[in-house]
Design a protein that fits this description.
Blueprint: E1 3-7, E2 13-15, E3 21-23, H1 28-40, E4 44-49, H2 70-81, E5 90-91, E6 102-105, H3 119-131, E7 135-138, E8 161-162, H4 167-172, H5 183-189, E9 193-194, E10 204-207, E11 210-213, H6 219-230
Parallel strand pairs: 1-4, 1-6, 4-5, 6-7, 7-11, 8-9
Antiparallel strand pairs: 2-3, 10-11
């Protein structure tokens, strides 16, 4: 049995260019599908958030139109509510990477608000890289990588090949023109080798100890890849 740390957003909004707060949180599929895969394999999950606050699910991620209909939407809502670790997160500030065998970051727009600028999350990510701890990040979760800077100011992931939610997907989702910044643009500016797949299709990229998924549909194959690394 391995111990897997879920690092999750602690906010329920994303501040747009005009200052309005777009209601969001973590994307249900990106937490539920990996959680179910990891626990079915016998692994232990700990959830950490900034300040240890209970993470908020993005209500849009429970809608029928993104879950294949009302029945599957109800199943996703029930599965989200059934994850006990979401109700008792630990403080991200107190986490030691050495206590875990792998680290996982689900997405949703909320990480763009807090984890993208979290020094605590950034230090954890740098430590995970430096210790060879398997690291999996999906969709908007790679926003957290922007805070992973070294003492010389460079990004620890510069030169890594990875993926995340693309400009095309953000545009098609209807938020690109309201966003203060776009994830793909900022990652490229940080020096990563961004690998863009087809919009909304599963797309997983691996580079050394890092596994990244482009969008919600990438959650299952990303979880499978992390499980292979823990086998």
């Amino acid at each position: 049995m391995s111990k897997i740390l879920f690092v999750m957003t602690g906010v329920d909004h994303w501040t747009l260019t005009d200052g309005t707060k777009h209601s969001t949180g973590f994307w249900a599929e990106e937490a539920v599908v990996p959680y179910q895969a990891f626990t079915a394999a016998g692994h232990e999950i700990t959830v950490a958030t900034p300040g240890g606050v209970v993470p908020t699910v993005d209500r849009a991620s429970l809608a029928p139109e993104v879950n294949g209909g009302p029945e599957k939407a109800a199943e996703m809502a029930a599965a989200t509510a059934a994850i006990p670790e979401l109700k008792r997160p630990v403080r991200l500030e107190d986490v030691e990477v050495a206590d875990y065998d792998a680290v996982f970051y689900p997405g949703g727009h909320a990480p763009m608000e807090d984890l993208s600028a979290s020094a605590d999350s950034g230090r954890l990510l740098v430590r995970a890289l430096d210790t060879g701890t398997p690291l999996a990040v999906v969709c908007h979760g790679p926003a957290a990588l922007l805070a992973a800077t070294r003492e010389d100011g460079t990004n620890a992931f510069a030169g890594y090949r990875l993926t995340g939610f693309t400009n095309v997907e953000e545009t098609q989702a209807g938020l690109a023109d309201k966003a203060p910044w776009l994830l793909q643009d900022r990652l490229v500016e940080a020096g990563v080798d961004f690998a863009e797949g087809e919009p909304w299709a599963p797309h997983v990229v691996t580079d050394r100890t890092l596994v990244t998924g482009q969008n919600p549909a990438s959650s299952a194959p990303l979880a499978d890849e992390l499980l292979r690394r823990l086998a």
